[in-house]
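Hey,

Quick one before I head out. I ran the complex with NAP overnight. Inputs first:
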Amino acid sequence: MTAFTDGLMTDRSVFVAGGTSGINLGIAKRFAQLGAKVAVAGRNPEKAKAAAEAIGEGALGLSTDVRDYDATRAAMEQAADAFGPLDVVVSGAAGNFLAPALGMSANAFKTVVDIDLIGTFNVFRGCYDLLRRPGASLIAITAGQAVNATPMQAHACAAKAGINQLIRVLAMEWGPDVRVNGISPGPISGTEGMARLAPDDSTREAHYARIPLKRWGEIAEVAEAAVFLSSDSAAYISGTILDVDGGSQLGDATRNSPAKGLA
Ligand code: NAP
Ligand code: COA
């Protein structure tokens, strides 16, 4: 299923914030398979260590909370010291839970905005002078909530919408030297995110029906998009948000059935 050949990322150094599980760990593993030197970071040091072992020899598992600018900067410095200037930085740390706005304290709302949006600013602002310039690729992991208002997701909608604009502004400000893009995954199988957002069979089945491709995505499919955006094939792509979502952004595919009947 891949168009990429072994060695495509040889000698590139990659830092994945929130890369210790799920989609982001899948991205980190894929870069390592293609020859990159990879560091992942999350809050839990044991989880980070296990992730590095799963990625393979030479990978670094670092501990930071992306809400803490200095600690996050220190983790990225550690990666750059070990591997050289950073070619790829992925900002994917996130927190989420289902709750109506009236069921969220101010701190609950702020917590998700702090991790997702402020965390992405901290990662990107903190890495700038550690990047290989020109040539570096920054990727923020956003979500459909950025553009689709979603009940029970006020915090994530606000945070991811902010990330989408941050991507665009940084792509403009840093354009000559650095490309800045986003990936917006749809529902991805086997992830913590979907365990939280679609916890039961009936919610999952309703999700499948609404997606034009009628299935959830795979972690590997998101990882391929991250490799593409960081490859020389994407050298003229900046400020874009690539939906890897089976067409979910187009709307509810169950509403297409009358039109399909006319075909
Ligand atoms: P996940 O497995 O829970 O991954 C989250 C990662 O972020 C973990 O490595 C976690 O490690 C780390 N993290 C959380 N809070 C952090 C903090 N404050 N500082 C540093 N690291 C932190 O989640 P996932 O479901 O794979 O989602 C990954 C990304 O994809 C997120 O940005 C999410 O919004 C996005 N996304 C997911 C889906 C989906 O279907 N799952 C769909 C659309 C978008 P620690 O807990 O050790 O910190
Ligand atoms: N409903 C309403 N409020 C909730 C909640 C829920 N399900 N879960 C947490 N909160 C509130 C807490 O009560 C707290 O508010 P308070 O201080 O007013 O009581 C606030 O959110 C922060 O919770 P806390 O547990 O202290 O935050 P944390 O920084 O330790 O953890 C979370 C952050 C809450 C986002 C946690 O779920 C997490 O670590 N998630 C990472 C993994 C993840 O979400 N993966 C999916 C990515 S899409």
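The pocket of NAP (ligand 1) is lined by residues 18, 20-24, 42-44, 47, 64-67, 92-95, 115, 141, 143, 185, 187-188, 191-194 (CB under 6 Å).

Talk tomorrow,
K.
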